[in-house]
Structures are given as C-alpha cells and as structure tokens.
C-alpha cells in the first residue's frame, strides 16, 4: 500500500496544476506558431479550463486541516471533485457560447493537460518490484 503524508499530497497536487500550466503554454505556443492566432488562443483556453478546474479541486480537497477525520477529508474531496466537474462544464459552455474557437486545439490542449495526472501518479508511486502478494507467498 502506498500512502502520502499531507504535505507530500499537497505538493503533488500543486505539481499537477503547475504541470498543466506548462503543458497549456507549450500547446498554445505550438498551435499559435503552426496554425495561427485562433488555434493558439483556443489551446490556451482549453488548457486553462483544465488548470482552473484542477486548482479548484486542489483548493477544496485540501481545505481540511491536518489531522481531520477521514470522513471530513473524503467529504472535502467529493465536494472538490463535484465542483471541478461543475466548473469544467460551466467554462466549456461559456466558451462555446461566447468565443469562436478551434475545437481541435481547444480539446487537444484540454486532453493533453489530463495526461499530467497520469504522469504525476506514475512518478508518485513506487516502482513495481515484484514484491506484491504473489511474491509474498514464495
């Protein structure tokens, strides 16, 4: 089992948001350089939606004080995840109703920022060493 202490978990959440900012800027820069202003701006907006939503989850999810009951911590993360979903939907709806965007760049950058979660998780977990339950029986 892998556990993270609260300061480690907060740093991990912060690194996810920061990583998403970096991916967003890179995607927007590439889209701007290759396809022009609208795709570049669209990539910036798409990645920005993910960054804002992730930051909301991190802020709400980690708002419980250290040492809080497990139920309180879990509730904060459930509320944070629900709020993240609502923010994501609201921002996409706002963008669709108010802006002329390149859908490929918008969703491409948004999806690219989602991979930051997987990369951060892969880096946070210990390497697979074959010492799991099957190896323990030997």
Task: Name the descriptors.
138 residues; mainly alpha; 5 helices; 80% helix; globular
Brief account:
80% of the residues lie in helices and 0% in strands. The protein contains five helices and no strands. The mean pLDDT is 90.
Structure description:
With 138 residues, this protein is an all-alpha fold. It has one domain (6-123). Helix content is 80%, strand content 0%. It has five helices and no strands. Helix 2 (37-61) runs antiparallel to helix 3. The longest helix has 30 residues, at 6-35. The model has no long low-confidence stretch (mean pLDDT 90).
What does the secondary structure layout of this molecule look like, with pairings?
Blueprint: H1 6-35, H2 37-61, H3 70-98, H4 103-124, H5 133-136
Helix pairs in contact: 1-2, 1-4, 2-3, 2-4
Structural class comes to mainly alpha
Oligomer description: single chain
Low-confidence stretches: none
Please give the count of helices: 5
Principal-axes shape call: globular
Largest sheet: none
């Amino acid at each position: 089992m892998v556990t993270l202490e609260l300061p480690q978990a907060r740093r991990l959440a912060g690194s996810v948001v920061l990583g998403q900012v970096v991916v967003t800027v890179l995607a927007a820069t590439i889209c701007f350089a290759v396809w022009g202003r609208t795709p570049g701006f669209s990539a910036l907006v798409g990645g920005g939606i993910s960054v804002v939503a992730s930051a909301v989850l991190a802020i709400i999810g980690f708002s419980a004080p250290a040492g809080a009951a497990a139920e309180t911590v879990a509730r904060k993360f459930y509320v944070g995840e629900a709020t993240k979903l609502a923010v994501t939907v609201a921002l996409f709806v706002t963008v669709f109703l108010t802006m002329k965007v390149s859908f490929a760049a918008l969703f491409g950058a948004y999806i690219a920022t989602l991979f930051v979660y997987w990369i951060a998780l892969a880096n946070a977990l210990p390497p697979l060493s074959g010492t799991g339950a099957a190896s323990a029986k030997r």
